[in-house]
Structure formats: C-alpha cells, structure tokens
Amino acid sequence: MKRIMVFVMAAFLILSLAQSALAWPNEATREKVKLEVTERIRAGEDLAEKTRKNLAENEEKIKTIKEGMPVTAKQIDVNKLLGQKALVQETNFEKIRQHQKEKLEIAVQKCREQDKNPELCEKMFQARLELIDKLKAKDLKLIQELEVKKARTMKQIRKLNEEEAFANFKEEKEFKTREVNKDIAAQAQESFQRAAERLKISKDKYELVKQKFAKAKAELKQCKKEECEPVKTEIRAKIRESLLRIIEIMDNKLIQLKQKTAESETLTEEEAAALTRLIDEKLAETKELALELEAKEDVSTKDLKNLTAKVKEVLKKVANTAKRSSLKIMNSRISGIIVKSKHMELKLERVLTRAAEKGMDTGTLKANLDQFETLLAEARNEHNTALELFKEGKLLEAQSALQRAHQDLQKVHVILKDITAKLRALGLEGELEKDTESVIEEEVEEEVQKTLEEVEETE
Amino acid sequence: MKRIIAVIFCLALLALIIGCKPALKESLPSAVSTDIAGIPELTEELDVSELDMLDQDLTDLLEGLEI
Q1: Interchain contact A17–B (C-beta under 8 A)
Q2: Distances in Å between the alpha carbon of A176 and those of A173, A265, A333, A351, B34?
Q3: Is B5's Cβ below 8 Å from some Cβ in A?
C-alpha cells in the first residue's frame, strides 16, 4: 500500500514539475531572442557615435533632474513638450524624438519623487532613452501617431468617468461597481437554476393544459346542447389551470431576474436595491393572485373572466418590470465592458509605443487598433441610444439598440483576439501586465495630457 | 516512510502551485474577452419575451370564456 502511495506521489510530483517546466521559455524562443538582439546590435552600429553623444546629453539632463525639486502635475513644463495639436502636424522627427525623451525624463523624475530606488528609476528608463536615440523616421512617425491616439483615448476615458452610466467603473476596483460576496453570488446562482427548473416544469404543464383547452374548445363546437355542460366545465377547469401556470411562469421569471440582480457586479448597490424592491412588489402581486385562484376550485364563468382580466393586468405590469430589470442589468454589463475596453485600448497603444521605441515591426497592429477604436465607438453610440430610449420608456427600441451594441462588441472581441495573437507572436504579451515602469509612465502621461488640455483650454 | 510521503506530497503541492500561478492571473484582454463572450448567455438568461406571448394566450382564454 505504502509503495503504491509513494509511486502515486512521485508521479504527481513529476507531472507537476513538468507542468512548471513548460512555463519556461524553450530553446527555440531563446534562440529567436538571441537572433533578434544580434540584429539590433548590428543595426545600431552605424548610430553608435551619435548615440554616445546623445547619451552624454541624457546623463547630464538626469543629473540636473536629480538635483532639482520634485515635480508635480502642475509644475510640468509644458513648453518643453509639444502640444498634441502641434504633434499631429509635426514633420520634424527630431522634435518627436525630443518629445518622447522629455516624457521619459519626467518619468524618471516622477519615479524618484515616489521614493523608488533612484538607480532603479534611471535604469528603468535609461534603456528606453537609448532606444529612442536610435529610432528611424518610420518608427518616429508611428510613435507620433500613437501619441496622438493615446491623447485622444485618455481624453475619452476622462469623459467616460464623468458620465453617469460609466462613472462607477473604476480600474482600481477591477471595473466592478460593487463587490458581491462569493457566498451570496453562489446562492443567487443556485436559486436562479432552481427557478429555471421550476420554470421549465411550469411551461411544460402549461403547454399540456393549452392542448387540452384547445381540444375541449373543439369538442364544444361539435357537442349537442345536453352534452355541452361537462365540456364547458372542462374548459373552465383548463382556463383556471392555465392561469395558475401563467402565474407560476411570471413568478419564476421574476425570481430569476431577482437573482441576476443580486449577483450583478455592474449594478450599483442603489440600482440593485431599487430593482429588487420593484421585483418583490410584483412577486407579492402574483402571490396574492395565485392564492385567490387556488381558493376557488369550482369557479364560475363570471369569476373566471374577472380573474383572467386580473392576471392579464398583473402580467402587463410584470412584463414591464421584467423588461426594465433585464435591460438595466444588460445595460450596466455593457457599460462595464465599454469602460474596460477603453482602458484596454489605451494599454494596447502604450504597448505598441514601446514596441515602436524598440524599432520592432508591429505590422498591421496599428490598423487593428484603429478598427478596435472605431468599433468600440460604435458600440458606445448604440449603448448611449439604448440608455436614452430606456429613459423615454421605449423598452423594445432600447433592447434593439443594445443588441446592436452587443454585435459591435462581438466584432471588438474578434479584433482583440487577433491583436493578442499578434502580440504573443511578437513576444509582447507580457507588456500588458502592470509593472512599476508602466504605472509611472501612465501617471506621467495622464499628468502631461491633463496639463496640455488645461493650457489648451485657457488659450 | 510517512515523513518521506509527507515531503513528496508537500513538494508536489508546491510545484503544482508554482505551475498554476501564471494561469490564475487573468490579463485585461482575456477579462474583456470573457466579458464579451458572456453576453449571449446573459441575454438568454435575461430573456423575458415569453411574457409577451402569454398576453396573447390570456386574450385567447378570455375568448374561450364566451361560452
């Protein structure tokens, strides 16, 4: 027995180690990287002299920054940087090179300001400063386009943050409007499933009753006077049963929506509470109606007419509540995806800028990013239309607009898959992870952009 | 013997944790992809169109009561 256990454990260990080992880059990848580095070194040889000269200049600048006072967002010397408008029109690539370098210099300063290891701060950005010195015109042109694009995306993100539908989706909260306890979410899912099972049973039973009702109606048309009474009783019984099944269907649908509301992490607490209250009100109405129907087993035609009219009235209200709840949940989900995708877009633009700095051939990635931006903007427009229509109470139209937004997002999804595959092929996938360097760079870009926009506004 | 088994077990567990760690972290692109890919399922779960059909059924039932 012990031997078997040892054997199992050992097999387990070997399998686990094999799995870990797979995470390490293989020989082919290392060779590929080696080859790439060698090519770069060769390409940089003719620029070596120029680079050395520029390096000396950079070192001098960093030294000056080290000795200087800490820089805050308001103190950033925007005159040193090109405005975005100017950057679009800029044809002097040396100015673009300068723009990039100065931004990185501010990043070094910012890094030091945040009490990070000074040597590490310089080392972190020094390599990139060196790369910028070596850049060719075509790479600088791409960087210029990406800089303009980034500025636009940052502005759009800030605008999103000011809009009611998007303001609650923050990156630091993983784009969730609220945190739903895991147990509560699991319970909600379980209740949803149970309601789905009950709903299926109710629907099946209802279909059977409908068939029997149709059969009884056909019999009624053919019966002779004295034979008709039992058929009429049968019809009344089937209508009563149909009403009970319809109430069950409404009930279970409402319960499902209540559970979806409970587990939603894109609705705010207030929105979820308001929806739950609304659904509970309707559940109370259906319960009351069911009790009334159950109490009357042998019901007269007149009573049945009244009860059917009542069910019809409640159904109208339930359907409205259900549509509103359903749209609200879906709207919030799409809002979250739009904000998340917009941040994704900015991240991809940053990765591409870094790749361009390295002089990498990024192929069609820039075109993919442009497509991503266009489709996301279309999804956002449709989503906005849906929100407007929802406010006007045009629920069906709102639903159609939301479906169109979803179709656009599906196209975004396809492009995103294409982009990530290309990034993987270029070995850039890891660049999407947040590290100290990217955090500082993001902060600097945000500050620079904000300051530039403020200057633009005052002009 | 028991000690050896315990050590092997711990090592295997550690290796498994190390091996699985990168897979546990979800990147932003995959989070966006998951969210978008999840919409059809949510649409299905939130579908309430059958309630509209019930309204027509109730009209038929009311007609059926004209007996």
Answers
A1: yes
A2: 6, 6, 10, 24, 14
A3: yes
> Is B54 in Cβ contact with A249 (below 8 Å)?
yes
* Maximum average pLDDT range among A205-219, A226-240, A249-263: A249-263
pLDDT at residue A131 above 90?
Answer: no
Interface test with A, best of B14, B34, B58 (most A CBs within 10 A): B58
Is the minimum CB–CB distance between A237 and chain B shorter than 8 Å? no
B contacts of A19 (beta carbons < 8 Å) = 15-16, 19-20
Tell me the two tokens of residue A309: 């009219």
> Chain A partners of B35 at a C-beta cutoff of 8 Å?
333, 336-337, 340
Quote the pLDDT of residue A85.
57
Q: Compute and round to an integer the Cα radius of gyration of chain A.
A: 32
- Span A273-305, pLDDT tens digits: 999 999 999 999 999 999 999 998 888 889 999
- pLDDT tens track for A404-428: 999 999 999 999 999 999 998 988 8
Contacts of A199 (CB under 8 A, 6+ apart): A248, A249, A252, A253, A256
- The answer to whether residues B40 and A218 touch, using CB atoms and an 8 Å cutoff, is no
Q: Is A361 in contact with A206 (CB distance < 8 Å)?
A: no
Which residues, at least 6 apart from A354, have a Cβ–Cβ distance to it below 8 Å? A128, A428, A431
Residue B28 to residue A364: CA distance in whole angstroms: 21
Partner-chain residue, chosen from A246, A326, A417, that has the shortest CB–CB distance to B46: A326
Q: Which tokens hold the place of A22?
A: 């797979």
Residue B55 sits at the chain A interface (C-beta within 8 Å):
yes
Which residues are CB-neighbours of A314 under 8 A, at least 6 positions away? Answer: A250, A282, A285, A286, A289
User: A119: burial class by Cβ within 10 Å (0-12, 13-18, 19+)?
Assistant: exposed
For B5-62, the pLDDT digits (tens) are 787 777 777 766 665 544 445 677 888 889 999 999 999 999 999 999 999 999 988 8
What is the spatial distance between Cα A250 and Cα A283, in angstroms, rounded to a whole number? 8
Q: Distance between CA atoms of A207 and A199, rounded to whole angstroms?
A: 12
Contact: A232, B67; criterion CB under 8 Å: yes
Global pTM reads 0.76
CB pairs under 8 A between A and B: 150
In chain B, the residue whose alpha carbon lies closest to the alpha carbon of A258 is B46
